[in-house]
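Hey team,

Filing this mostly as a record. A colleague (T.K.) asked me to run one chain through the structure pipeline before their review meeting, and I want the input and output archived in the tracker in case anyone asks later how it was produced. No errors, nothing strange. Just documentation.

Input sequence:
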Amino acid sequence: MTIGCAETLCEDRSAGEIELDLRGVERCQALSRLELMLRTGRHSGLRWLWVRLDPAVPGAGETLFVPVGRRLIDAWRCGTISHCRPLPAAEGGGYHVEYPA
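Output structure:
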Protein backbone atom coordinates (compact mmCIF):
# COMPACT_ATOMS: atom_id res chain seq x y z
CA MET A 1 0.00 0.00 0.00
CA THR A 2 1.23 3.50 -0.78
CA ILE A 3 0.50 6.32 1.63
CA GLY A 4 1.24 9.80 0.36
CA CYS A 5 4.40 8.72 -1.44
CA ALA A 6 5.19 8.34 -5.08
CA GLU A 7 5.51 4.89 -6.59
CA THR A 8 6.35 2.25 -3.98
CA LEU A 9 8.43 4.24 -1.51
CA CYS A 10 6.01 3.39 1.28
CA GLU A 11 4.90 -0.17 1.83
CA ASP A 12 2.92 -1.99 4.49
CA ARG A 13 4.91 -4.20 6.82
CA SER A 14 1.91 -5.13 8.96
CA ALA A 15 -1.02 -3.39 10.59
CA GLY A 16 0.15 -0.11 12.06
CA GLU A 17 3.59 -0.27 10.41
CA ILE A 18 4.88 1.46 7.30
CA GLU A 19 8.29 1.28 5.68
CA LEU A 20 9.50 4.47 3.99
CA ASP A 21 12.24 3.51 1.55
CA LEU A 22 14.46 6.51 0.83
CA ARG A 23 17.29 4.56 -0.75
CA GLY A 24 18.43 6.21 -3.97
CA VAL A 25 16.30 9.32 -3.37
CA GLU A 26 17.79 12.83 -3.55
CA ARG A 27 18.10 14.71 -0.25
CA CYS A 28 15.41 17.35 -0.88
CA GLN A 29 12.87 14.82 -2.08
CA ALA A 30 13.70 12.39 0.76
CA LEU A 31 13.21 15.06 3.43
CA SER A 32 9.89 16.10 1.82
CA ARG A 33 8.64 12.50 1.89
CA LEU A 34 9.75 12.09 5.49
CA GLU A 35 7.96 15.29 6.43
CA LEU A 36 4.77 14.04 4.80
CA MET A 37 4.96 10.76 6.73
CA LEU A 38 5.58 12.58 10.01
CA ARG A 39 2.56 14.82 9.44
CA THR A 40 0.14 12.16 8.20
CA GLY A 41 1.36 8.99 9.94
CA ARG A 42 0.22 9.88 13.42
CA HIS A 43 -3.29 10.76 12.27
CA SER A 44 -3.69 7.68 10.09
CA GLY A 45 -3.38 5.18 12.93
CA LEU A 46 0.27 4.25 12.42
CA ARG A 47 2.34 3.05 15.37
CA TRP A 48 5.72 2.49 13.70
CA LEU A 49 7.63 3.90 10.77
CA TRP A 50 10.71 2.18 9.38
CA VAL A 51 12.88 4.63 7.43
CA ARG A 52 15.35 2.89 5.08
CA LEU A 53 18.45 4.77 3.91
CA ASP A 54 21.42 3.98 1.72
CA PRO A 55 24.36 2.70 3.77
CA ALA A 56 27.48 4.85 4.00
CA VAL A 57 30.06 4.11 1.32
CA PRO A 58 33.64 5.42 1.60
CA GLY A 59 34.14 8.42 -0.68
CA ALA A 60 30.44 8.81 -1.49
CA GLY A 61 29.98 11.99 0.55
CA GLU A 62 27.20 12.78 3.00
CA THR A 63 24.38 10.28 3.34
CA LEU A 64 20.82 11.02 4.42
CA PHE A 65 21.48 9.59 7.90
CA VAL A 66 22.37 12.92 9.54
CA PRO A 67 19.73 15.20 7.95
CA VAL A 68 16.99 12.61 8.49
CA GLY A 69 18.18 12.09 12.07
CA ARG A 70 18.06 15.82 12.76
CA ARG A 71 14.49 16.04 11.47
CA LEU A 72 13.47 13.06 13.61
CA ILE A 73 15.02 14.68 16.71
CA ASP A 74 12.99 17.84 15.98
CA ALA A 75 9.84 15.71 15.61
CA TRP A 76 10.57 14.01 18.94
CA ARG A 77 11.06 17.38 20.68
CA CYS A 78 7.69 18.55 19.29
CA GLY A 79 5.92 15.36 20.40
CA THR A 80 5.17 14.19 16.85
CA ILE A 81 7.03 10.93 17.55
CA SER A 82 7.70 9.23 20.88
CA HIS A 83 10.83 7.19 20.08
CA CYS A 84 13.47 7.00 17.40
CA ARG A 85 16.34 4.53 17.13
CA PRO A 86 18.92 3.92 14.43
CA LEU A 87 18.61 0.49 12.85
CA PRO A 88 21.40 -2.01 13.55
CA ALA A 89 24.06 -2.08 10.83
CA ALA A 90 23.01 -5.63 9.94
CA GLU A 91 19.59 -4.28 8.88
CA GLY A 92 21.06 -1.53 6.67
CA GLY A 93 20.91 2.19 7.20
CA GLY A 94 17.87 3.86 8.64
CA TYR A 95 15.69 4.47 11.66
CA HIS A 96 12.85 2.84 13.56
CA VAL A 97 10.33 5.48 14.61
CA GLU A 98 7.43 5.08 17.02
CA TYR A 99 4.43 7.39 17.08
CA PRO A 100 2.76 8.31 20.39
CA ALA A 101 -0.07 6.02 21.50
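Quick notes for T.K.: The chain is about 30% helix and 25% strand. Residues 1-9 have pLDDT under 50 and may be disordered.
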